[in-house]
Amino acid sequence: MVGGVFALQALEVRDDLMAAKLELSSLTEAYKTGDAAALESIGAETLELTTSADATVQGPLWDAASALPFVGQNIAAVKSATEATHIIVRDALPAGIELLGVMTPDKLKVEGGGINLVPFQEAQQTLPQIKTVLADARTKISGIDREALLPVVDDAVGQLISVVDEAGPMLDTVEQLLPIALRMAGVEGPRDYLVLFQNNAEIRATGGNAATSTLIHVDNGSIQKVEGKPVDDFLVAGINGDLRSDLPAETLELYESDFDQFSQNFTRTPDFPTTASLFNQLWQQTNESQLDGVISIDPVALSYMLAATGPVPLDDGTEINADNAVRLLLSEAYERFGTDGLAADAYFSDVASRVFDKVASGSWGPTAMIDQVMRAVGEQRIYAWFPREDENALTSEFKVDGALTADNMAATQVGIFLNNASYSKLEYYLSTSMNVTCDAAARTMTTSLTMVSTVPGGNLSQYTLAWRNPSLHIPRTTMILDTLYAAPPGSTITAIDPTDGDMTKWNRDGAEKGHPLSSRTMLLTMGETKTVSFTTQLPEGELGPLEVRYSPTVTQTPVTVDASCAALFPAAE
């Protein structure tokens, strides 16, 4: 009789917790739709369910059953897990739901463009409370010996333990980073950030020609574009090649001579902090002040953001959207304006600016936008740099620093990057893939880049076709690509295939930020597929997880790391 009653209670607890889990699963949809009433209802119903389950496990039968041999540990684990779940739902969920309720899209928007920072400031006050609740819940489940549990019990209890264990460090990170992020959003004073739009059709190491940029002014969450003489002077100085940088000769020898003079070439280096520094120096030279940061995106990243914002109307009655953005900006604009490069660049700038206005308006769902931004980050299309050390630390945290690593401890970084040397927009028709193989016994690694040209013919606009090629007696439909290999710090480049590329006189070898670098110029004719490979002798000692970098094109770049590398590099966490 007693056993039957306990069995019924156990089923009631199971049903209550399963129902609570189902309720919580609908939180995301309620948040996305901005349904505050639904959020409150979910919180109330979940609390009712966990209160019922907690009341049940406090009964005398559960204490008695917990002392039974064999099954007692499992019953005690279920009781502790139920109590921990109720603590979280009772003491942390209401604060969390209140935050979600004030972070809906309609409440985050700011008139004129920007983000309402008040909810994030309120979150700062709420985080300590939530962390305390999680610590209380962790105390409840800390004594559970999972090795002694039945598989079915361990699976259920393990899910809760994983949530609590992961949430704690995550909240610590948020609590640490949120004040910094708020300062960057202008809470303590206005900021000026330069946003670069890298043009993949004229490829560069970190994306493309960066002749187009926008200065944005951020003040307490409000975001405005800056226009006028200071910005015009800066842009003209970049186009005219007025910068006189302080880069060392060793770095300059790896690139064409105009690398550090003209702003459209600042992105030839795979080290984005160097690129940002060049733009910052140019700003200081023309305005006698310092930028608060440099942010870089490409048209593909813009297209992803348009998937979150929806289409943007253009002056000619058409629209730019997620499906046509890359084609409009990187191909049709140049075919439409022919040799009038200034008009094409102006169109590119205007459209990019309109998309930026849409993004800055805040009229989009945060979760959808975050998903699209993270997609772009994963494809190496977004980079950032900030002069303040604590703020720049965020770029490493979110993997947007684009920096050549100082050593091989956190990651063993290798990359093959591309720089357009034909003065064209032909790379709209370029796709690439990367492959890494290893010989663990010899401690060598071979990194290969395969390039495919899909240039359709010679009837493209004069601005798209290669301007430099006729002087070199090369067809204007042929891409000239400086393939720049960056080996890990402390390693040695032992072989290159082909050894001298296609233009021996343009071979360049040296080092940048401790990375051995080699550049070989490859000619990629219309419709051709070509592979270039670099072999490296790796340094002795432990190596961090392998990190493969590349220049993003208009398509995705598949990266394959052979199983032979597993013995040299630990898996990334």
Question: Can you offer a commentary on this structure?
Answer:
This protein is of the alpha+beta class. It is 43% helix and 20% strand. The strands form 4 sheets. The chain has a 5-stranded mixed β-sheet, sandwiched between helices. The protein has a 5-stranded mixed β-sheet with strand order 13-14-11-8-16, with no helix packed on it. The protein has a 5-stranded mixed β-sheet with strand order 12-15-10-9-17, with no helix packed on it. A hairpin with a 5-residue loop joins strand 5 (312-313) and strand 6. Helix 10 (229-240) crosses helix 12 (272-287), helix 13 packs across helix 14 (325-337) and helix 13 packs antiparallel against helix 16. The longest helix is centred in the first third of the chain and has 34 residues, at 151-184. The mean pLDDT is 87.
